[in-house]
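name: query_chain
kind: protein
chains: 1
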Amino acid sequence: MGVRMREVAAQAGVSTQTVSRVMRGETWVAAATAQRVRAAMADLGYHGNAAAGALKRGQTRTLGLLVPLLETTFASFWPDVAAGAETLAHKHGYALLLCDTSDSLDKEEAYLSLLLSHRVAGIIYAQPRCRPDRHPVFASLLAANMPVVVVSSDEHDLPYPHVRTDDVRAGYVATRHLLDLGRRRLAFVGDAATAPGAGQGLLKAAYDRAVGMRHALVDMGFEADETALLLGPHSIEGGRAVGQALIAGDGPVPDAIFVATETMALGLLDVLRTHGLRVPEDVAIVTHDGLPAGASAFPSLTTIAPPRGAMGGACVDALLRMAAGASIPPLSMLEAQFIVRESTAGVGAIPRRGLSTPLSASDAWSRWRTDTAVGVTDGDTTAVTCMTLGRVAYTDAGEEVMSPARSTAHD
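structure:
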């Protein structure tokens, strides 16, 4: 027979209730007492049955994190968000159950069911695809009255607090920066909503960045219909396919491109280099995400960098406050940084780590010019959808489907 809780209590000189409280991570138990209990548990080899106790209380000390794509490469956004969430969750005695949907709506529904069946204490939901009116599991989530926080996209039809950065502002600043450099043949590259049931068009975050780009063009007197918009999978290969489509397209190659994700930008950069196009001399590039890979690329990528770890931590903080009955604002907008690097300023013109400006600064697109830092240099078939930016409406709702003007496939 295994070791029982009362044996641990006897060795530590405490009650079984105190042992239970230490196992639940309750912080008001005296530190010395908690240390004695843990020492007794280790000495006797006692692990307890935390899951059974949690189910009796109707909840576990576990938080769920649903992300759309948890790549293991150095060009992935979500691991840093997960790390920030896990750090704060662990500090408060919670475990984090990480669910990678692999950009699959079926997996997203399955993981929601799993988290509900495990009675997690709350869910961090990144870029949701499920909807209450179309997916029964989401109706179950609403009925469970569970704390939920949506991260990294603005979903107006979901009744949960949101944690994100300003994607519309990101598109605006990126575009003003390119126009400020004298570029006039602009293009937008975004990640397509490819999951079954997601419909044609941009993912919500990329959609908002395209809306910001359109605002900037109109503000500066340019026609959005003259700006190419290309969609591809959220991957390096997707960026390569978009690059091939740009090279093969009619007319001259754009002299400036805003790429909505850094992962795609790495693939696009590779194609431009292969075809002898210089960045930024021939084509200037601004991207989004602020990944380490962008700082290490050649040339290093000018980018808009959300505080990924802080986003994860903010989500956990919101969940814990919701569980405690606190009022949570419907939107927590975190500050991103606009980082100018070689892909717009020129190779060797600035440190490869870049010059950073808060995205909210009124002149973020040109403020880097006032800084001085010269001469430092640190260290199968994919579908592409092509249209024009004029098809992106001004509305933030994003309900309408953006039908593709033409679709091509490139190896």
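note: Residues 167-307+335-410 form a domain with the Rossmann fold fold (CATH 3.40.50.2300).
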